[in-house]
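Write out the 3D structure for:
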Amino acid sequence: MGVASLTEGWVSGNPQIGYDEIGSGPPLIFLHGIGGNRTNWIDQQLSMADICTTISWDARGYGKSDDHDGALNFSDFSGDLVRLLTSCDINKAHFVGLSMGARILMDFFSIAPDRVATLTLCDCFYSFQGALSPKKQQEFIALRQEPLKQGKSLEDIAPDLINSLVGPNCSEDVKVKLYKSISDLHVESYLKTIAASMTFDVSSRLAEFDVPVQLIYGEHDKLTPPSIGNDMMNQMPRARMQIIEEAGHLSNMEQPDAFNNTLRLFINEHLTLASFKNNQSV
């Protein structure tokens, strides 16, 4: 089973949302990070396709999905996610999100908790100002927003951005994939997402996440270190945490085998909690 086996689908509406699907069984949906797109999850989709219907989307303004007018709120992403579930006839799903993808899921849970079977939240913060130190906040802006506003290209900023994210032993192959993901970003949509991320804060709602939660953090994640995950685990009533050794912020790409093993174990424990509206669950 290879990448060619992925089926491309579309969610109609404004904006139109693209996604890839493969596998059979309960639905498992993947949400990429702020500098990525759906292709970042290929290893996970292929790994989980024997037990789940796996779906990875391009968020609005990313990959093949449409850009959008006006400012961005994370509730816009959540509304798109509802549209995806409706389009795919999904009643309740397992969700996996990395960084920005995890922020989308934390917002989504606040509006549609009944659609969530489990959450796997990876390498993420729950509050830009509350979880990141002032130094990390400035670094986040300096590496992403400021250079683009000064006229630099995505290709210009990619090397420094990649080096700030990955672990010390990240392979060159993964760095090449990350470079392509960053180069393929839609600049204006990316800037809108950065602005929305800087005001993101669900710190007061962490105790409300009453579904099974798997937290995954890279051992060498400099942007969102495992200490942030520990804070979240201590406040979420059904959360547990796994640290992926020899990984930085892109733990699913840097150490896919370890990541996939953690994900499979967690999803298998709760597999039948997710279902399609036609009652298909296995």
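The chain has a mean pLDDT of 96.
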